[in-house]
Design goal:
By secondary structure, the chain is α+β, with helices and mostly antiparallel strands. It folds into four domains: 2-101, Rossmann fold (3-Layer(aba) Sandwich), CATH 3.40.50; 129-208, ATP-grasp fold, A domain (Dna Ligase, domain 1, 2-Layer Sandwich), CATH 3.30.1490.20; 212-341, D-amino Acid Aminotransferase, Chain A, domain 1 (2-Layer Sandwich); 353-462, Glycinamide Ribonucleotide Synthetase, Chain A, domain 4 (Alpha-Beta Complex). The chain is 32% helix and 23% strand. The chain is built from 16 helices and 23 strands. The strands form seven sheets. A five-stranded parallel β-sheet has the order 3-2-1-4-5, sandwiched between helices. It has a five-stranded antiparallel β-sheet with strand order 13-16-19-23-20. A four-stranded antiparallel β-sheet has the order 6-9-7-8, with helices on both faces. A hairpin with a 2-residue loop joins strand 17 and strand 18. The longest helix has 19 residues, at 265-283.
Length: 479
Amino acid sequence: METVGILVVSYGAREAAIIDALSHSGKYKVELYVADKQRNPFNVKKAKEHIVIPNLNVKLICDFAKKRVNHIDFGIVSPEKPIIEGVRDLIEKETSIPIICPTREYAIEGSKVAQRLLLQDVVPEANPKFRVFDPKIYGKKKDELTKEIRKWIEELGGVDKSVIKPDKPGFGKGVGVGGEHYTTFEQALKFFFGSFGGKTGESVIIEERADGEESSFQAFCDGMHLIPLPETRDHKRAFDGDQGPNTGGMGSYKARGDWLPFMKKEDKEKETEMVTELFKYLRKNGSNEGLRGMPFYVAFIHTKTGPKVLEINSRPGDPEIQNILPIIENDTVDLCYDLINGSLSQIQLQEKATVTIYKAPPTYGDYINTFPERVNRNEIGTPIDLNEAYKLTKKYGDNIRVYPASMELRNDGMNYALGSRTVCVVGIGDDIEHARKISLEGLTRITGGALWNRRDIAAKEHIARSLKHMQRLRGATKS
């Protein structure tokens, strides 16, 4: 069996899922060299060598790779920060190691303004109405700028119909939604000026708030070929019923087929058409290795006039990729070589539904203050025990996966929750409800840390609401 050395740059559960998929290779002996944000217990156990780089500094990651250049055959990077900062460019420049992630030039989420302008040039129907406010134009004209903002928000239909986005990535923060983060023009203006200009001279977008249902589109790319994956639905809001603040994603689901219950086949086809047009534009006249990896993780919203793009990222989704990786039938190492060699042809998936649900610490999403009666304060800060969840593999086999995220293995041999989403459980079943029951059962077996989770991820009632919402929107189009 051939030995393959793989560098993995890790942030959380998404990378644990990648490492799990690589470790399931039946053709290769996989040796993992992991540069991690923390001592993720899953990664520590799987890695031949494990290093902690808390800020995922690209130079330190490159130094780690350079010292092991004779042992590493290729690398995988999925956290957005090092991708945006050019980790692939640096490692490939200073070593012979090919890296699976887009180059800095194609880290599309690096500028929301550039992203909207790209869409306007290539697939304008994917854009909601938007306007860019540039400090180079309005930097010293606050009164004039305020009038222009008011005029534009009124044109969109009022404060509740607006979304304010700073140009630079906020890594899950910084976007303001009318009617939620602000309800008056004065509040909207305060939100706007919280990002506008400053030391970096940042532009801000104000765009139309779209009414619809969201889905996540992901695709693998080798620079020449683009292979779309099945649709997933992420749940960004912290609490049941899609209430509370936005988060990194409290869970997600995938149906048995390629699209979601509230979608139609033509919705998926339209999304694929839009992303393919972007790919062709960026690919130019031939292959473009700068796009290698997953350059198009696209958040779509399905409206009465068709799908619109909320945002595009140049890396896999978290938690959405956890819904996909466990059911890929291709040998994952071979799939990586196909991405590197430009020979990507097809991806075989089990015909299964999957549900991923996160548990988080009580401070996450301000759960502790929103639902103080639900928090066992004596359990806060206690070790996290995953053993009983892992034992469910005796019952479900590979149809359950447990992936630690913002969790740290400490010197006492115990695992502790850090500040973000702590651990996710993936359930795999013949339908969404079956997969959901497996995921929820796994979550109940995880103890310690006063962790909590949403209870309605992929619930029948939630899916039914999405379906009715889309039916109303489509009905409004016909009338």
